[in-house]
Amino acid sequence: MDMETMKYLAAAISMAGAAGPVAVAEAWIAQRAVEGMARNPEVAPKLQTAMILGMAITESTAIYSLVLSLIILFV
Amino acid sequence: MIEIELAAPVLFTIAGLPVTNSMLTSWLVVAIIVIFFRIAVRRAALVPTGIYNVAEAVFEGFLNFMDVFSGARERTVRFLPFIGTAFFYILVSNFIGLFPPIGQLTFTTTAGDTHALFKTPTSDYNLPLALGIIGFVMAWAMSIREYGVIGHLRKYIHLNPMDTFLGLMDIVSDFARIISLSFRLFGNILSGEVLILVMTSLFNGSVAYGIPLVFMALGLISGVVQAIVLPAITLMAFRASLNLME
User: Chain A contacts of B68, Cβ < 8 Å?
Assistant: First the structure.
């Protein structure tokens, strides 16, 4: 297996490995946020804000793998 | 293979300073922000109308949002110079890549190669890295100004070796915050650009009028969210450095 193939494989595995757990984690965040909103609708805006912020920070771990993949492919 | 460059190409030099296309676009962003707010403020009145209404609505919404992270309006106003600037700069930078002329105009350098004249500033790693470093230096500088160099170091180094270890972990987490903030913004915006590029060139460009719209909308949403998250995390870092976290 030559270097080019290894690079493509590395980039693909890096992103694929990160995307799964991050998707599950963001789904959990959304689930708890919606449950909380259903239980107590008047604090829904605060919950929504916290949910968006939590999702942005959780997503950043997958973004690290994405940047790694991009660097492997293009640099 | 589609041309995706991570490093912004140098277009020309002004008095020895190399100017890349993302630098040029960031100057355009600054011009847009300054002109918008100057025009808005000139038409200020007690009852807001027109463009001043828009500026005030955006600014007030931003202040209300940041109040959640800072705890009090006067703390938000105290840190507003960096937080507000970072928010508007990142917001307009993320949006400017979606306007039609940006990305279409090309420029041929004196060496003969052709590049795009404008590029989204936040998709060049230099800008998010600069914002992260400025936030870190400001947090440490404010803490040193408040407590002195010895008092600042005493936050991290204690007599108890266990506490000193935790303090060193705090220093590492301060540096890691630079990396995480900059990568978050850079990765989100760059991946949005790459996605739009790939979707536009799908099937040799025959679906270039429909499908990329969805991904441009996604890029808008992620651009707004990232413009909120970076100032919010920096605000919490400022609060922590001045021991205002109660």
Answer: 46, 49
